[in-house]
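Notebook entry, structure prediction.
Reason for the run: the old model in the group folder had no record of what sequence produced it. Starting over properly, with the input documented here first.
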Amino acid sequence: LLLPWPGFAEADQQWPARSEELRKLVSGIAQPFHQLSRQAGLEEDIALQNSAKATIKCTLSILRRLTESVQNEQTRCKVLLHQALMEAIETALGLFPIYVSHPDIASDLLAFFLALFASLKSQVGSAFAQRTSQTFMSLFSDEMLHTTLTTSHKQGCEVIEKFLCILQLLTQETSSSFKSFLPTIISFCMDQIYPLIAERPDPDLKMVLFDVLRDVLLCHWRWFFPSSILTRVNASPGAPEQSDHQPQFVAIMQAFGQSFLQSDINIFRKNLQTMEELQSKCKLYEKDLFKQMMLAQFINVLLQVLIHKSHDLLADDIQLALYHMASSDFTLFFSQLLPHFLLSAEQLHDAQKQELVVNFSRDEDQLSFINNLKRFLGDVRHLHIINQSLPKDSVKL
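New structure, fully documented this time:
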């Protein structure tokens, strides 16, 4: 009913008749599911809610797999399926507020909507996408999210992960109609989800969240930095670069930076790769906003990680990232950022700090810079050991 018949011309595909038969088939499969939307007392009666779970799970499993099957098919197939699913989609959306506190069913409902947006995003349209996402967000209050994660941790994480995956699909859409609710997505991620999981040991959930934030930056860079190449060429020398939505950009970058202070090496690797990708495609490290407010912090954190060897498996990647950050403005790095980093090194004496700065050769090619960086790191570690082995106040400068 859904796929094109091989060997038949377009005129012989009988799409109208197949559309009607498909609608009847889906309606028959989902009839008990549709009846739930008219079930009296379902919203208040826990017993009724529990008795309906088997029907919901069975129906959603079939409809989800049917939806996933057309993801790579032609538009005609997708239009047919969307028309057949419209009643089931509205029923599922109506059931979500009832079952949001049931992680098992909430997970199945979100899995269905995830398949829907992955396969039929163009067919459902931006208006429905916005209505759906806002419905979900309105139900995921701070208290609800906290309860979901603490009372049924594994299933609760799955619920939130699936919703974040839906938001990621919407974020990847760059059309103006989808872009209108980008601020809402950022606010939900940064104001509600991130504070809740920042210090929790939930690597899978954090990974999905950082995937969403990565796509926010990569797919909507102009939302933060709208100036075109022509505008920058015609700008007056020394004029500040235009940047919009600075609080949101800074908050996202601070979340990336905070992840470098934590022990999870996979999230560290992923976020470092994201920053390098943003540098390669968008010149992140050269943006005035980043250089003025964040460059020093990132350099300090990455240097500390290398000195303490806390993520030694990523040492080469971290050194390369530091080279790219320094190369955005070598003068700034050698004259301000490197001395600023050493100011916080309480284990070193002032004369040692000055000597470290002087001995860091000013070579600007990648190979020489990284070799000089390795030498600098070795010297810092060596001085730490020496200073720790000496009696207190035995060194007078």
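Summary: The chain is about 75% helix and 0% strand.
The old model has been moved to the deprecated folder.
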